[in-house]
Design a protein that fits this description.
With about 280 residues, this protein is of the alpha/beta class. The protein has two domains: about 5-125, no CATH class; about 130-255, no CATH class. It has ten helices and six strands; from the N terminus they run ααβαβαααβααβαβαβ. The strands form two sheets. Strands 4-3-5-6 form a four-stranded mixed β-sheet. It has a two-stranded parallel sheet with strand order 1-2. β1, α3 and β2 form a beta-alpha-beta unit. α1 runs antiparallel to α2. It is globular and about 50 Å long.
Length: about 280
C-alpha cells in the first residue's frame, strides 16, 4: 500500500479537471501496482491514444525498460510508457489523457533530439526546455495582452489584484507539469510553475472544461512542434497566487511576500507563444 496516493485531494481547483479519471486510478493504485497498471492500460486501450511517432500508448512497469535505452526513446519506439508506482508517474500518466497531443509532441521532439545527438552526460538546451515543460509547465490561457505582459514582467499586483476579476473570463491557469502536480499534493506558498502563455480568443472562456482542454491541447501542440524551445520561453508563476486556488490570496497582502512574488523584468518577447 502506498500511503502517498491517499493524500490526493481531488477538490483542489488544479485537480478538478482530471478528478474523474484520477479518482479511479487512485483507487487502483491503493490496491497495488498490478491493479494500477491494469487500470491504466484498460483506459489506454479504450482511448486509443498514440505517442509522438504514432505508436499506440500503453503502460509498463519501470523495470521492463530495456537496460541502456532512454525513457523517451523507448516510448517513441514502442508506445510503452515505463511507469513506477508513485505519484510522479501517476500524474504523468494522467497528463497523457488530459493533453494527449501535447504529450505526444513533447515525446516526438525528445526522441528527435536523442536520434540527432544521442544520450550524453547532459541533455542540452532543447531537451532541458522540453523536460522543464513536461515536468513543471502551467498553461496560461490568455485573451488579454495586458495580463500576459503583467505575467512576463512580474507585475503581480496587475495580474492578481488589479486584474483579479479577469481570472476565469480573460485568463486562466491549468497545471500541465506532472512534477508540479506531485508537489501540489501538499501545496505550499512558494510552489512555482513555469508558465507557457497561450493566446486564446475571448470565446474560449465560454467553453466547457473539456472543450477548453481540447483547445489548449491543439494550440500548445502546434507551438511545441514549431517553436525553437529554450528555458527562457517560460515565465515563473507562483501557483497559489492564482485567484481561487488559495483562501489566503483573497487578501491583497498575500502578494506582498517578496520571497515568493519576486520583483523582476523579463526581456520583451522572451515568453514564446505569448499573447
Amino acid at each position: 500500500m502506498h500511503d502517498e496516493f491517499g493524500e490526493i485531494d481531488w477538490t483542489q481547483p488544479w485537480l478538478r479537471p482530471i478528478a474523474s479519471r484520477g479518482a479511479r486510478w487512485q483507487a487502483a493504485a491503493l490496491d497495488g501496482s498490478a491493479r494500477y497498471l491494469t487500470r491504466l492500460n484498460a483506459d489506454a486501450s479504450e482511448a486509443a491514444l498514440v505517442t509522438g511517432r504514432g505508436e499506440r500508448l500503453a503502460f509498463i512497469a519501470q523495470e521492463a525498460l530495456p537496460e541502456g535505452e532512454s525513457y523517451e526513446a523507448h516510448i517513441a519506439r514502442t508506445g510503452r510508457v515505463p511507469t513506477r508506482h508513485n505519484l510522479h508517474d501517476f500524474f504523468n500518466g494522467l497528463m497523457w489523457f488530459a493533453y494527449p497531443r501535447i504529450k505526444a509532441a513533447l515525446n516526438a521532439r525528445q526522441a528527435d533530439q536523442i536520434d540527432a545527438l544521442g544520450i550524453g552526460p547532459t541533455r542540452g538546451g532543447v531537451r532541458d526546455a522540453l523536460t522543464l515543460f513536461d515536468e513543471n509547465a502551467v498553461l496560461f490561457a490568455c485573451a488579454d495582452a495586458s495580463l500576459a505582459d503583467a505575467l512576463r514582467r512580474f507585475d503581480w499586483r496587475a495580474l492578481f489584484v488589479d486584474g483579479r476579476a479577469s481570472w476565469g473570463t480573460r485568463c486562466e491557469a491549468r497545471i500541465f507539469g506532472h512534477a508540479l502536480l506531485e508537489k501540489l499534493v501538499a501545496p505550499y506558498k512558494a510552489c512555482t510553475g513555469h508558465a507557457w502563455i497561450v493566446e486564446v480568443p475571448a470565446a474560449y472562456f465560454s467553453l466547457d472544461d473539456e472543450a477548453r482542454r481540447a483547445t489548449l491541447d491543439d494550440l500548445v501542440c502546434q507551438s511545441v512542434i514549431a517553436t525553437p524551445l529554450a528555458s527562457r520561453a517560460f515565465a515563473p508563476l507562483p501557483v497559489l497566487g492564482v485567484p481561487g486556488w488559495c483562501d489566503a490570496n483573497a487578501d491583497a497582502a498575500f502578494y506582498d511576500d517578496t520571497s515568493v512574488f519576486r520583483a523582476g523584468r523579463r526581456v520583451a518577447g522572451s515568453a514564446e507563444g505569448a499573447c
